[in-house]
Amino acid sequence: MQIDLSGRTALVTGSTQGIGHAIAVGLARAGARVVVNGRGEERVAAAVRDVRAASGSDDVTGAVGDLATEEGAAAVVEAVPGPDILVNNLGIFGSAPPLEIDDAEWRRYFEVNVLSAVRLIRAYLPGMKERGWGRVIDLASDSAVVIPAEMIHYGMTKTSLLAVGRGFAKDAAGTGVTVNSVIAGPTHTGGVEGFVRELVGDELPWDEAQHEFMVKYRPQSLLQRLIEPEEIANMVVYLASPLASATTGGALRVDGGYVDSLLP
């Protein structure tokens, strides 16, 4: 299976680290012109250098802007006027006692995790439809389906993203543009690694530590290890390609079997 994205431009939001960074690398390796996004110029510039080095591609640039604001989104749209591939990866997460999450925090999570994606879809989808080709991919989470009691505000935003993706897929029906969501499971990032060490200690080698963490604290997982960011990136690269032309309006799982249901 050969994936060739030569001639396509991809914007990956929140891609200075973690899953977004891995997605940027994967798309660049497939030949796409990749635009890395973040809020700070220094971090974006560093990420651009890292993506170039990891992918072997020099066709990587940056677009600075806080997509949780209308002004930041407008700046990114001006810098990147017509991408063929939009990956809405930007997101924040954190735990909090459910009854102590105030209105401001609910709004902040919705602005960052949901409206940032809506703003860019609204800006870019018309051009994709006119050109007759485009890919919109929203990064959701297992928390969209299995709402964590300690992360209700986060889970709510990821459920909302599934609805956003399905709805805009209908708007793009018959145009050659596909809109999909990716349901990512527990993933190995720097923050999660620290969290695992807090729970299981520093004595075990990493492979054993993460296995113990998954068995004890995430027993629903059939993979019984954390997912690597590159494994999620593989699904995104596929969905961004012409090979996924018949897949739209979907919520595709890269969750290691964490969600205990047949569908999605």
From TrEMBL:
<keyword id="KW-0560">Oxidoreductase</keyword>
<comment type="similarity">
    <text>Belongs to the short-chain dehydrogenases/reductases (SDR) family.</text>
</comment>
<dbReference type="InterPro" id="IPR020904">
    <property type="entry name" value="Sc_DH/Rdtase_CS"/>
</dbReference>
<dbReference type="InterPro" id="IPR050259">
    <property type="entry name" value="SDR"/>
</dbReference>
<dbReference type="Pfam" id="PF13561">
    <property type="entry name" value="adh_short_C2"/>
</dbReference>
<dbReference type="InterPro" id="IPR002347">
    <property type="entry name" value="SDR_fam"/>
</dbReference>
<dbReference type="GO" id="GO:0032787">
    <property type="term" value="P:monocarboxylic acid metabolic process"/>
</dbReference>
<dbReference type="GO" id="GO:0016491">
    <property type="term" value="F:oxidoreductase activity"/>
</dbReference>
<dbReference type="InterPro" id="IPR036291">
    <property type="entry name" value="NAD(P)-bd_dom_sf"/>
</dbReference>
<protein>
    <submittedName>
        <fullName>Dehydrogenase</fullName>
    </submittedName>
</protein>
